[in-house]
Design brief:
Helices cover 44% and strands 10% of the residues. With 260 residues, it is α/β, with parallel strands linked by helices. The chain has a single domain, classed as 3-Layer(aba) Sandwich (Uracil-DNA Glycosylase, subunit E), CATH 3.40.470.10. The chain has a six-stranded mixed beta sheet with strand order 1-3-2-4-6-5, with helices on both faces. A hairpin with a 2-residue loop joins strand 5 and strand 6. Helix 1 crosses helix 7 and helix 3 runs antiparallel to helix 7. 38% of the residues are buried.
Length: 260
């Protein structure tokens, strides 16, 4: 591929991402994205794909499950949302998965990790990051002086792409509102994107992880840090030192002690 062709391909990719973003906003309303702010001004709750009787522009009260009281806890709201999307078949991955992998962790977490998509182990168990890469992530979290139960872990996609291929943009368009709703409910103080797919999806760009890491970005009011995926670290141990530097930045942002 010539440099001109490579540039055109990247430009086309950005336009496709923009088109998908606009389509997502059209489906769920232009004000559905979570602000991540702590003042309660979180905007309109998105209606997940497949929600019956929910037109565009639904307000927060309409998109809340009827049985939930207004003062429902984050844990109850996440559980209700999980039940609401558990049988999602908005894209073909709903027909090939074993389990929908909703996410796992502390509903009141200050720190939320976002990966790419479930793998074979995650698909089998219905839990995120439980394979080799997940075990390494657990070690990273513990090295930070935390436990897995202190944080929340999710993915861009809720279902495993066949053969662990990269997510398709059409799949992201259907699934991203689910992640956005989780972020809106949890209201983490810091988001950490593990790998390029998560970072490019939330930041709407095609930059490499090496270019994105080392500084905080903004996701609708929530600080977002990009670092290497732990699956990458299994293949490239040299990336562990830069990732640890990133985790120190996260701890500093959260006001937590930094282990030596």
């Amino acid at each position: 591929m010539t440099p001109r062709e490579e540039k055109d391909d990247k430009t086309g990719s950005l336009f496709r991402m923009l088109e998908d973003k606009l389509e997502l906003e059209r489906k769920f309303g232009v004000d559905v994205v979570p602000t991540g702010k702590k003042n309660g001004a979180s905007g309109v709750t998105p209606s997940p794909p497949g929600g019956e009787g929910r037109g565009e522009g639904s307000n927060a009260e309409e998109s809340q499950p009827a049985e939930l009281p207004p003062d429902a806890s984050k844990a109850d709201r996440l559980a209700a949302f999980n039940a609401e999307i558990a049988d999602c078949h908005e894209c073909p991955l709903g027909d090939t998965r074993i389990n929908l992998v909703f996410g796992e962790g502390n509903p009141d977490a200050d720190l939320m990790f976002v990966g790419e998509a479930p793998g074979a182990d995650e698909d089998a168990q219905g839990k995120p990051f439980v394979g080799r890469a997940g075990k390494l992530l657990t070690k990273v979290i513990e090295a930070m002086g935390l436990k897995r139960s202190d944080v929340y872990i999710g993915n861009i996609l809720k279902c495993r792409p066949p053969g662990n291929r990269n997510p398709k943009l059409s799949e992201i368009v259907h699934c991203l509102p689910y992640l956005r709703e989780q972020i809106r409910i949890i209201e983490p103080k810091v988001l950490v994107c593990l790998g390029g797919v998560a970072a490019n999806t939330l930041l709407q760009n095609d930059w490499a992880v090496g270019r994105l890491r080392g500084t905080f970005h903004d996701f609708y009011g929530t600080p977002l840090l990009v670092t290497y995926h732990t699956a990458y670290l299994l293949r490239n141990p040299a990336g562990k030192a830069p990732m640890w530097a990133d985790m120190k930045m996260v701890l500093h942002k959260l006001g937590l002690p930094i282990p030596e």
